[in-house]
């Protein structure tokens, strides 16, 4: 759904630096279940902020509180003024027999705060923004899954937005549609729009976002830039070779640490070494290098390290 107007009770504008700030934000549903537990979140303006967590970890409830759709039990939050927030929480229902453009015009007309005179401009701009100008006249039922989701995002972009909130925008999409949405999110962010996007897929957040917060059963377990989240562990050099013992000796001689040798693979902490130099040194020492790569710890490894638990990587 897209929200156009009306500030929710309890919300106030955050500072110039942040699009969303929450402090101790908590939601306990009737029956005692804590869905969101004392959440402290700071979303910098201009970031693509991944809100990551397995199903049921409290992402949607948090988003619904931010949009004023659910009242918090306790805590505070501030968000940019709601007319400047575009949100995709549950995809809008589009008419299959109408074109993308006609659907957006209908959708726009349902907004009492939007002027009818400028409707066409708004719709044209939104379609352009999501790359659907060429397909504007095509019937919705003939759209691919990716195009359908792009149209839903266009509906959230009818009007100037400082913040776009997307709840699991790639859920149910095929790989092509997922790629389309990922690319679109980056494009939308490139002009400075803050994007807050929830996902249960680590790899997706890693590829699409500048920052992430990781939720587990209503609690925040880690947050920060993707680089800082992944940076806790050092990159490693990995060499594939039939001359493992020699390779390990050469790397130790060059000052590499944490050298490990197992079968045809030798690995070590890369430190400040240039991989191409190490390659040259190995070859010079007569080591047959079949493969050489630098492996950086993924967000998933970091997450597993933080929580001691696995994660729903494929969905
Ligand atoms: N209206 C409600 N009444 C009672 N419990 C609820 C309600 N809405 C959500 N919950 C519970 O709160 C918890 C958090 O749900 P929420 O939908 O926020 O998680 P989520 O991370 O968005 O997961 P998903 O990706 O499955 O939507 C879940 O255990 C859920 O069952």
TrEMBL record:
The keyword Ion transport does not apply. Gene3D superfamilies: P-loop containing nucleotide triphosphate hydrolases. GO terms for molecular function: ATP binding. InterPro entries: AAA+_ATPase (IPR003593), ABC_transporter-like_ATP-bd (IPR003439), ABC_transporter-like_CS (IPR017871), P-loop_NTPase (IPR027417). SMART domains: AAA. Belongs to the ABC transporter superfamily. This is ATP-binding cassette domain-containing protein. It comes from Nonomuraea mangrovi. The lineage of its organism: Bacteria, Bacillati, Actinomycetota, Actinomycetes, Streptosporangiales.
């Amino acid at each position: 759904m897209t929200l156009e107007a009306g500030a929710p009770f309890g919300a106030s504008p955050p500072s110039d630096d942040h699009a969303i700030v929450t402090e101790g934000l908590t939601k306990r549903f009737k029956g005692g279940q804590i869905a969101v537990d004392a959440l402290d979140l700071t979303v910098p303006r201009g970031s693509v902020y991944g809100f990551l967590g397995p199903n049921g970890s409290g992402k949607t409830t948090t988003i619904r509180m931010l949009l004023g759709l659910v009242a918090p039990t306790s805590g505070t939050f501030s968000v940019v003024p709601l007319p400047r927030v575009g949100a995709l929480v549950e995809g809008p229902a589009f008419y299959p027999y109408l074109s993308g453009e006609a659907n957006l015009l209908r959708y726009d007309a349902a907004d009492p705060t939007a002027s009818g005179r400028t409707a066409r401009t708004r719709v044209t701009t939104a379609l352009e923004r999501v790359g659907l100008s060429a397909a504007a006249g095509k019937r919705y039922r003939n759209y691919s899954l990716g195009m359908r989701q792009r149209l839903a995002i266009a509906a959230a972009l009818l009007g100037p937005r400082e913040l776009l909130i997307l709840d699991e925008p790639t859920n149910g999409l095929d790989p092509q549609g997922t790629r389309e949405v990922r690319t679109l999110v980056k494009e939308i962010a490139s002009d400075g729009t803050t994007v807050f996007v929830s996902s249960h897929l680590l790899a997706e957040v890693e590829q699409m976002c500048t920052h992430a917060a990781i939720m587990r059963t209503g609690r925040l377990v880690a947050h920060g830039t993707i680089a800082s989240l992944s940076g806790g562990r050092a990159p490693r050099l990995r060499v594939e070779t039939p001359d493992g013992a020699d390779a390990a000796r050469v790397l130790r001689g060059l000052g590499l640490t944490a050298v490990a040798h197992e079968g045809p693979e030798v690995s070590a902490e890369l430190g400040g070494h240039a991989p191409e130099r190490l390659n040259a040194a190995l070859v010079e020492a007569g080591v047959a290098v079949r493969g050489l790569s630098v492996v950086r710890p993924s967000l998933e490894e970091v997450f597993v390290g933080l929580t001691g638990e696995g994660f729903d990587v494929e969905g």
